[in-house]
Amino acid sequence: MLGTLALDGYTLVPEPAGADFVIVNPLWFHQRALERNRGQ
After folding, report:
1. Pick the residue with more confidence: 13 or 32?
2. Per-residue pLDDT band at 10 (split at 50, 70, 90)
3. Residue 38 needs a FRET pair 20 to 30 A away by CA distance; which of 11, 19, 20, 24 works?
4. How high does pLDDT run on average in the chain?
5. Residue 38 is inside which H or E element, if any?
6. Does residue 33 have a pLDDT over 60?
7. CA-to-CA distance for 23 and 33, rounded, in angstroms?
8. Percent helix / strand / coil, the chain, rounded to 5
């Protein structure tokens, strides 16, 4: 996805405050919940 956005002229910035939009990966949250449930 980042490569496609870069081709369209978007750049990655270190802080959300400087961004035009923010993309959140919901699977990251899901993975963390699974790990907690398994006691990892």
Report:
1. 13
2. very high
3. 24
4. 85
5. none
6. yes
7. 20
8. 50, 0, 50
Residue 40: predicted pLDDT: 57
Q: Which residue has the higher pLDDT, 40 or 12?
A: 12
Answer for the pair 19, 13: CB distance below 8 angstroms, yes or no.
yes
Contacts of 10 (CB under 8 A, 6+ apart): 20
Q: Which residues of 1-37 are buried (b: 16+ CB within 10 A; e: fewer)?
A: eeeeeeeeeeeeeeeeeeeeeeeeeeeeeeeeeeeee
